[in-house]
Amino acid sequence: MRAPRPPRREALQRGVVILPSAFTLGNLFFGVFSLVATARGDLSYASWFIVIAATLDMLDGRVARFTRTGSRFGAELDSLVDAVSFGVAPGAIMYELYFSDTRWSWTLSFVYITAVVVRLARFNIEQGGEAKRYFHGLPSPAAALLVASFYPFSQTAFFNTYLAELPWLQIAGIAVVLIGVLMVSHVPYANVPRIGTRSVRGILTTVFVVVCIFAAVSVPQFFFFTFFLLYVMWGLLRSTLLGLLDRLPGEDPLLDVDEDGDLARTEPRILDYRTLGPRALSDDDPDDDPPLEGHA
Fold first, then answer.
1. Which among 146, 38, 25 is positioned nearest to 92, based on CA atoms?
2. Which of 110, 129, 142, 195 is 20 to 30 Å from 82 by CA-CA measure?
């Protein structure tokens, strides 16, 4: 006798479970395609393939949360794929662009890739794929987009007219190391804002996202590098100027925030903030410091 077919709802659920992993594997496809393009000397395509990979990486987590199909397997798969797409692939672009002429300059690409791998391992332990308002350290997709989008920006007329004479070999080496340090640091970086229409904040966020999408489609050579450079600098300057490395939040920054700006109804985790700042916090530090502002 034939085995009974699974109910239609169960079959549909199994199909839905595959969706997040499909986006993740699409991320891997374009990460590997970027490596192939770099090996062929086509750095422009290699850069845009990383942009596509980052877009798919942003979608897979949201699809998993929307369909409630997140799993430990999906989180581990995502980290392994990110190591390729946002670590090895951007490192290969920088090697081909600046670090291939001298004997040991390839180690700068190694430093960047190492920082990405360490950050992904720490992310799995610290945040475990849960929704969060802030990242501890520069997210690897943002770092990869900044590194990868530099080449298309360097091919613009503006760059060739005003910036081409700068010592880019030295700048690239310092920038790669600094980006690596920011990835493994505890500098808070805001997550992608959540759009909505139920509050003024949600409406403004929606308008901002729409404007960013329009700019990304209209002038991608300028938008991606400029946007992520400002994102990296803003997180660092905000932490420095406002003292966020010492005045740590009273709330859990890893919890999600709903559209109205309130914390989601999730049980807070116990976090030890004493090692996050540049110096150990003493026992008599005030507990009434204001929380971090912003959205996940």
1. 38
2. 195
